[in-house]
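Checklist before submission:
- one chain only
- standard amino acids only
- sequence pasted in full

Submission:
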Amino acid sequence: STGLITSARAGGAFVFTPVIRSLLDAGGVGHAMSYMGVVLLAASVPLWLLLAHSGLDEPLANRKRDSSLELTPEEVERDRQLRPAMFTLWSSLGLGVFAGLMVIAHGAALLYCHGATIGVATAAVSIVSLCTTGGRILGGWACDRENIGAAKVLRVAPFVAVAPLLWAAAAGTNVFAAQSALAAASITYGVFASAVPVELRRRTGPRDFARAYGKVYTAWGVAGLAAPWLAGLLYDARGDYFAALVIASVLCCASAVAAATLKPGRSHEEWAEAIAAGKRKAAAEEVLTTEGKTSREEAEEGEGT
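Returned file contents:
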């Protein structure tokens, strides 16, 4: 379900690309922007009605835990293990999407630089949208398989793009090589959009997922700002995308290595059971302590009389 929902974002770009192209040909940039603004405003009404009457009244996260409340040993251990796991997911996501965005953000220019015609180069948006959508759906499907899971997906998916990226770097005038690199980078980029939230949700559960995912997703924001800029800087320095493609392939490997360091860890459900068992044990010990204290007091009173 995560893959299907997140794929809508890329699917929208695929659907509207020919529409925008027609609007640009018909009346230029101003005409196209005005038309899309009207479409956005018109879409807001059915979206509001859909959300207002969908019955989705459950909060995305529970209230933040009161820091004055004492944690059980199991809760302390859970939080201790969750922090490095979140950093590992942040690193893997950041490195992976950084690599993808170095290619995706310059898709049309990359194809044109490899010898594609302007018409073929402008199809880069469709390639990115289609492959990103496929990557998100495929990533979600793989995460749901018991013999695969999200952690394994994060370790394997980045390597899908390595060979095509290096091929495009070596074949500077091969359009198909550039298209393959763009497609592979888009697939990997899409897989991350499905796998990271699934793995994070498995570890945090519904209570802390929204806050935890907000922190981990900052990696995408950093990559979104820096990756296109770095790829453009390297192009300006060399006049081609060789360095950007090589660096992107290295970052894919680094992302897989980071994911490989992710320890299995208990799921949210397993931690909930352990915490509940710990609380029951603590309550039983408290009862025994109280009963023992009462027995000693009664014995002391008996000796005094």
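Reviewer check: DSSP finds eleven helices and no strands in the chain.
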